[in-house]
Design a protein that fits this description.
There is one protein chain. The chain has five helices and 18 strands. It is mainly beta. A 16-stranded antiparallel β-barrel has the order 3-4-5-6-7-8-9-10-11-12-13-14-15-16-17-18. Helix 4 runs parallel beside helix 5. The two termini are 32 Å apart.
Length: 460
Amino acid sequence: MHLHRSLGTRWTRLVVADAQSLFSGLTSVALACAAPTCAWAEDASSDTAQQAFAVHGQATFTLQVTPGFASPYAGTNSVLPKQARETFDATLYFGARLWRGAELWVNPEIDQGFGLSNTLGIAGFPSAEAYKVGKAEPYFKLPRLFLRQTIDLDGDVVPVTAAANQLAGRQRYDRLVLTMGKFSLPDVFDTNSYAHDPRSDVLNWALVDAGAFDYAANAWGFTFGGAAELYKKDWTLRAGLFDLSKVPNQPSLETGFQQYQAVAEIEHRQTIGGHPGAIRVGGYFTHGNLALLRTLIAAFQATGVMPDNASLRRMNDHGGGYINAEQEVAPGIGIFARASASDGVTEADDFTDIDRSVSVGGAFSGSRWGRSADRAGIAGVVNAISRTRQVFLNDGGLGTLVGDGQLHHPGNEWISEAWYQFGVVAGVTATLDYQFIANPGYNRDRGPVHVFGLRLHAGI
């Protein structure tokens, strides 16, 4: 982790200039690729036109500010009052159809900035645009490089719309989809139409994904692995195997599945009163070099000093599961809910310090009030930890994100979020976001924290 850097006007100007330059170039490329000779080729096996290759892009700037709040003491991982932090990322999405049903995608990206308190102090962190690694200077990374193979089985032919990491074309409703390479595990698992994309809906970590789903990832949220999805009528069965980070909460990924996570999910899609919805149930099993919380507590009780987690890491197992539901209830109105739990016996591996989490919310299209380019949403989540993790934090232990040095008055972390997204021009939005966080880091002595946010996003 890097030291905090204050928000500077110099980098704000740089971010805006970079975004303008990027999208000027992307627009030119996109217009060039709109011609049939660039974007489309005939699939020799059918009369369906399949997009041969595509280029998309996005840029997102997020600013979050928190005023003063009660902070009687602070530890290494505490959230601090009176601060402002910004993040910026710009991504290109290059895709090509290699053969029938096969798509290769690569996503080079430029990132810059920090989350509040260097992405520490709140288990349900308020910005999923902020990573565990922050830098004041723009830096390059390659979050995704993957191959997706779709094998048609049976059923009706359905259209596939063009999008980032998805070529336009058609496919069978019943199909097998294989994804292999480097990508984010939530690209495939625990998806949700109303709460899953911090660039266009909720921002909070525990609302974007199931809070207790400690999914395999490096410090930026990506990993190596593969997933298989079998679509059959209204059901989908998913399974995958992924590398953990070499060290919890760090950039380097394991190779060869020496430390791994297996994930499985079943999804059912339903229509209620003519409105679509889905229910997903998933589970995960992790085998990695992790410290047991009871071992760390025992060492503290024996010496009076909490040891560094790394000194007591051994190959251990842990796991958990989640339920994820979404349902359109009227045109332009959708609701969602998630519930998740983990065994709470080891240090958090690659996501955050949450052992139980329940979230609910809704999203609304501005077409209902005459602004079709606008969207809005409201959501809430309650996060909790096991009794063992409470003792560990009270003894001075440090989690992935939380650790105030003591936890004499533990309580569940309560978070609510409301956002309104304005459509500025085609492909450009501005979002106002507010989050209220009670008991940040499960500490009733700290907070409540008010987080005010601004998000600017452009995409083609």
